[in-house]
Design goal:
single chain; 159 residues; alpha+beta; Jelly Rolls; six-stranded antiparallel sheet; three-stranded antiparallel sheet; 2 helices; 19% helix
Length: 159
Amino acid sequence: MKAVKIIGNGILTVLLAASFAVCTYAQEKPWSKPLLIPSQKVEAAFKHALPIPDLTSGMSGNAKYRVRASRHDGPTDVEIHILDTNIFYITAGEATMVVGGKAVGVHKVAPFEWRGKSIEGGTTYHLKKGDIMIVPRDTPQWFEKIPSAPFLFILVKVQ
Protein backbone atom coordinates (compact mmCIF):
# COMPACT_ATOMS: atom_id res chain seq x y z
CA MET A 1 0.00 0.00 0.00
CA LYS A 2 2.86 2.37 0.83
CA ALA A 3 4.40 1.68 -2.60
CA VAL A 4 1.09 2.60 -4.29
CA LYS A 5 0.99 5.91 -2.38
CA ILE A 6 4.60 6.65 -3.33
CA ILE A 7 3.86 5.87 -7.00
CA GLY A 8 0.70 8.06 -6.88
CA ASN A 9 2.66 10.95 -5.39
CA GLY A 10 5.34 10.42 -8.04
CA ILE A 11 2.75 10.59 -10.83
CA LEU A 12 1.32 13.82 -9.41
CA THR A 13 4.83 15.28 -9.17
CA VAL A 14 5.49 14.36 -12.82
CA LEU A 15 2.16 15.93 -13.88
CA LEU A 16 2.88 19.18 -12.10
CA ALA A 17 6.47 19.27 -13.34
CA ALA A 18 5.34 18.63 -16.92
CA SER A 19 2.66 21.33 -16.64
CA PHE A 20 5.13 23.92 -15.39
CA ALA A 21 7.75 22.81 -17.92
CA VAL A 22 5.25 23.42 -20.72
CA CYS A 23 4.25 26.76 -19.19
CA THR A 24 7.81 27.96 -18.61
CA TYR A 25 9.41 26.81 -21.86
CA ALA A 26 9.44 30.34 -23.28
CA GLN A 27 9.93 32.07 -19.95
CA GLU A 28 12.90 34.44 -19.66
CA LYS A 29 13.02 34.71 -15.87
CA PRO A 30 12.12 32.26 -13.08
CA TRP A 31 8.60 31.90 -11.70
CA SER A 32 8.31 34.93 -9.44
CA LYS A 33 5.90 33.82 -6.73
CA PRO A 34 4.72 30.45 -5.38
CA LEU A 35 0.99 29.75 -5.32
CA LEU A 36 -0.82 27.38 -2.98
CA ILE A 37 -4.37 26.38 -3.77
CA PRO A 38 -5.78 25.07 -0.46
CA SER A 39 -7.50 21.68 -0.45
CA GLN A 40 -10.78 23.29 0.68
CA LYS A 41 -10.88 25.37 -2.52
CA VAL A 42 -10.12 22.30 -4.66
CA GLU A 43 -12.82 20.20 -2.93
CA ALA A 44 -15.37 23.01 -3.30
CA ALA A 45 -14.54 23.30 -7.01
CA PHE A 46 -15.25 19.56 -7.52
CA LYS A 47 -18.83 20.24 -6.37
CA HIS A 48 -19.33 23.24 -8.67
CA ALA A 49 -21.80 23.01 -11.55
CA LEU A 50 -20.91 23.98 -15.10
CA PRO A 51 -19.35 26.24 -16.22
CA ILE A 52 -16.29 25.15 -14.27
CA PRO A 53 -14.44 28.02 -12.59
CA ASP A 54 -10.65 28.21 -12.82
CA LEU A 55 -8.75 27.54 -9.60
CA THR A 56 -6.07 29.79 -11.05
CA SER A 57 -4.91 31.11 -14.40
CA GLY A 58 -2.16 33.29 -15.71
CA MET A 59 0.86 33.70 -17.91
CA SER A 60 4.25 32.07 -17.68
CA GLY A 61 6.54 33.56 -20.30
CA ASN A 62 4.53 33.41 -23.52
CA ALA A 63 2.34 30.53 -22.34
CA LYS A 64 -1.16 30.98 -20.92
CA TYR A 65 -2.42 28.41 -18.42
CA ARG A 66 -5.56 27.60 -16.43
CA VAL A 67 -6.00 25.04 -13.65
CA ARG A 68 -9.39 23.54 -12.84
CA ALA A 69 -10.88 20.90 -10.56
CA SER A 70 -13.51 19.21 -12.76
CA ARG A 71 -16.36 16.79 -12.22
CA HIS A 72 -18.49 14.72 -14.61
CA ASP A 73 -21.32 12.45 -13.52
CA GLY A 74 -22.30 11.30 -17.01
CA PRO A 75 -21.19 11.38 -20.66
CA THR A 76 -20.18 14.71 -22.19
CA ASP A 77 -20.30 16.30 -25.61
CA VAL A 78 -17.24 15.97 -27.80
CA GLU A 79 -14.92 18.93 -27.24
CA ILE A 80 -12.34 20.39 -29.58
CA HIS A 81 -10.09 23.08 -28.12
CA ILE A 82 -8.26 24.68 -31.04
CA LEU A 83 -5.66 26.46 -28.87
CA ASP A 84 -5.51 24.44 -25.61
CA THR A 85 -3.53 21.34 -24.73
CA ASN A 86 -5.38 19.57 -21.90
CA ILE A 87 -3.52 17.69 -19.16
CA PHE A 88 -5.83 15.56 -17.00
CA TYR A 89 -4.89 14.00 -13.63
CA ILE A 90 -7.67 11.65 -12.50
CA THR A 91 -8.40 11.84 -8.76
CA ALA A 92 -11.57 9.69 -8.44
CA GLY A 93 -13.97 7.55 -10.46
CA GLU A 94 -13.59 6.02 -13.90
CA ALA A 95 -14.41 7.08 -17.46
CA THR A 96 -14.18 5.87 -21.03
CA MET A 97 -12.53 8.62 -23.08
CA VAL A 98 -12.34 8.70 -26.87
CA VAL A 99 -9.59 10.87 -28.36
CA GLY A 100 -8.72 11.73 -31.97
CA GLY A 101 -10.62 10.59 -35.03
CA LYS A 102 -13.35 12.71 -36.60
CA ALA A 103 -15.93 14.57 -34.55
CA VAL A 104 -19.53 14.19 -35.74
CA GLY A 105 -22.21 16.89 -35.51
CA VAL A 106 -19.73 19.67 -34.79
CA HIS A 107 -20.80 23.25 -34.02
CA LYS A 108 -18.89 26.30 -32.78
CA VAL A 109 -19.67 27.38 -29.20
CA ALA A 110 -17.05 30.12 -28.73
CA PRO A 111 -13.96 31.40 -30.52
CA PHE A 112 -11.57 28.45 -30.94
CA GLU A 113 -14.03 26.08 -29.16
CA TRP A 114 -16.16 23.42 -30.86
CA ARG A 115 -18.60 20.74 -29.62
CA GLY A 116 -19.91 17.60 -31.26
CA LYS A 117 -22.13 14.57 -30.63
CA SER A 118 -19.70 11.66 -31.13
CA ILE A 119 -16.33 10.62 -32.57
CA GLU A 120 -15.68 8.22 -35.44
CA GLY A 121 -12.33 6.44 -35.62
CA GLY A 122 -10.87 7.71 -32.35
CA THR A 123 -8.81 5.78 -29.80
CA THR A 124 -10.63 4.60 -26.67
CA TYR A 125 -8.97 4.85 -23.23
CA HIS A 126 -10.20 3.62 -19.84
CA LEU A 127 -9.24 6.29 -17.27
CA LYS A 128 -9.10 5.67 -13.53
CA LYS A 129 -7.71 7.26 -10.38
CA GLY A 130 -4.02 8.09 -10.73
CA ASP A 131 -3.98 8.17 -14.55
CA ILE A 132 -2.68 11.14 -16.52
CA MET A 133 -4.02 11.88 -20.01
CA ILE A 134 -2.57 14.60 -22.24
CA VAL A 135 -4.68 15.67 -25.21
CA PRO A 136 -2.96 17.96 -27.74
CA ARG A 137 -4.69 21.09 -28.99
CA ASP A 138 -7.10 20.77 -31.91
CA THR A 139 -7.83 17.10 -31.07
CA PRO A 140 -11.39 15.81 -30.51
CA GLN A 141 -11.94 14.45 -26.99
CA TRP A 142 -15.03 12.85 -25.49
CA PHE A 143 -15.96 11.32 -22.17
CA GLU A 144 -18.20 8.71 -23.78
CA LYS A 145 -19.07 6.78 -20.59
CA ILE A 146 -18.77 7.50 -16.88
CA PRO A 147 -19.38 4.07 -15.28
CA SER A 148 -18.06 5.16 -11.87
CA ALA A 149 -19.29 8.62 -10.87
CA PRO A 150 -18.36 11.08 -9.71
CA PHE A 151 -15.45 11.26 -12.14
CA LEU A 152 -13.08 13.89 -10.73
CA PHE A 153 -9.89 15.28 -12.25
CA ILE A 154 -7.49 18.18 -12.11
CA LEU A 155 -7.26 19.81 -15.53
CA VAL A 156 -4.35 21.97 -16.62
CA LYS A 157 -5.06 23.85 -19.87
CA VAL A 158 -1.98 25.23 -21.63
CA GLN A 159 -1.79 27.55 -24.66
